[in-house]
Amino acid sequence: MSAVPLTLVNGQPASQLAALDRGVSYGDGVFRTLRVEAGVPRWWDAQIARLTHDAQHLRLVCPSPEIWKSDFDTLQVAESGVLRLTLTRGEGPRGYPFPAFPQPTRIVAFWPGAQTDSLQSITVRLCDLRLARQPVLAGIKHLNRLENVLARAEWHEADIREGILCDAREQVISGVMSNLFIWHDGVLKTPLLDQCGVAGEARAQLLERAQRAGYEVRVCQISLQDLFDAQELMLTNSLALLWRVARLQTREWLTPVISAHLWECLHA
Amino acid sequence: MSAVPLTLVNGQPASQLAALDRGVSYGDGVFRTLRVEAGVPRWWDAQIARLTHDAQHLRLVCPSPEIWKSDFDTLQVAESGVLRLTLTRGEGPRGYPFPAFPQPTRIVAFWPGAQTDSLQSITVRLCDLRLARQPVLAGIKHLNRLENVLARAEWHEADIREGILCDAREQVISGVMSNLFIWHDGVLKTPLLDQCGVAGEARAQLLERAQRAGYEVRVCQISLQDLFDAQELMLTNSLALLWRVARLQTREWLTPVISAHLWECLHA
Description:
Two copies of one chain form a homodimer.
Chain A: E1 6-9, E2 12-13, E3 16-18, H1 22-26, E4 29-37, E5 40-41, H2 44-57, H3 65-75, E6 81-88, E7 105-112, E8 120-131, H4 146-152, E9 160-167, E10 172-175, E11 179-184, E12 187-191, H5 201-212, E13 216-220, H6 224-229, E14 232-237, E15 241-248, E16 251-252, H7 259-267
Parallel strand pairs in A: 8-9, 8-15, 12-13
Antiparallel strand pairs in A: 1-2, 1-7, 4-5, 4-6, 6-7, 9-10, 11-12, 11-14, 14-15, 15-16
């Protein structure tokens, strides 16, 4: 993946933004990461809707879908890669109060490089860090991501692809950069995200598509024991789409059960 | 207070930083705010020590005190105002992992304008938002400040100067932009910050100076009931130094008890 992304700030080619932007000062903003395939961003409308929802939740005025589309068109992307859309509350006077006349900042960045196009089996670990429970921010993909940063810093092994995060009450929530699904006795389950975690678009897509394909789907509390008891463990995000977990600590899942079919559902 | 601060990025006069700096992408960094009096930043050594401590806690390499001092000298500040020192993990490849060769970004900003030089009596409110409990980040003045931003957005009344924050277990933690002290039956108490909150330098100074002045001082759990039962309520931060709370909801404290003396201790 290239180290030199294409970037726009407020629609203009630029690699910089105001040093006192509230995005830096307070992490006051939201973002989304999209998979781009031969110049086409996957799930564009849904991702923009999700970005808009999250922005509104923080009482941040989100630019219209047309403005985001125009930004993306400006990049003139024809190849595959990763697109990140970021919206901050922009600059303002010093201090926490919202600016009286907010001028949000949008950052659009594209990293060329194709993502995998097949279902991968990966090794994951359990993270030591426990996610804090904060219902006001739960589900939102905001810019306060120090928990993810610190959790990701827990391991260096190249063969470990992802870490599983629990919250302070030992409920399983997600991966560091993915959402989690388990397959257990004929039911596809994914954790409730009403206390912490990020509601990713790939998670929403899988919930919907699996249900449409006839699977019984449940959003519920999941314990660590449920993980180890599951017949299959999967992780979703917008870039990989779906990973199948082959190993978690000493527990191994040797044979795929439904992951190959769910990959087809999601990839379609 | 001027709307146009003086800013340096990595020691150079600049008003911009990289749009993909991890400070923006993840709030991956720390900061401190200092009161500057006629060109002299108050508690400089202690503030730099605190910034360094917080950075190390996030495994961020902090520039030496000499580098921060050199940055401040570059500003050639002779007047009073507010100084903010920010350190981020800088740019890196996309994603949560620490960059292999981190190049932290330091942002030094100065807003001219004198702070108050007398003890003020203020009206405060109780915030609805409850701080999440996250021992890994408790006490650290990091850039993930959405809770403070949202708590501060709860009120618009100009006569309400500060909001009081409790955590998810209804323990009183701090103000939105200050630390809290209560005076009760001859003991000066301030909340434990082992689950959330920011350990401000003014708090540390008051703890030390009050003890030296002969007060009995205690860092402990404080309930909402303790607040209303207290004989005096005070808030500290590096800019105001000390506020005396005159009113919280319907509870009023008409006569100062020890706040005037503590102001003298802190201002000295």
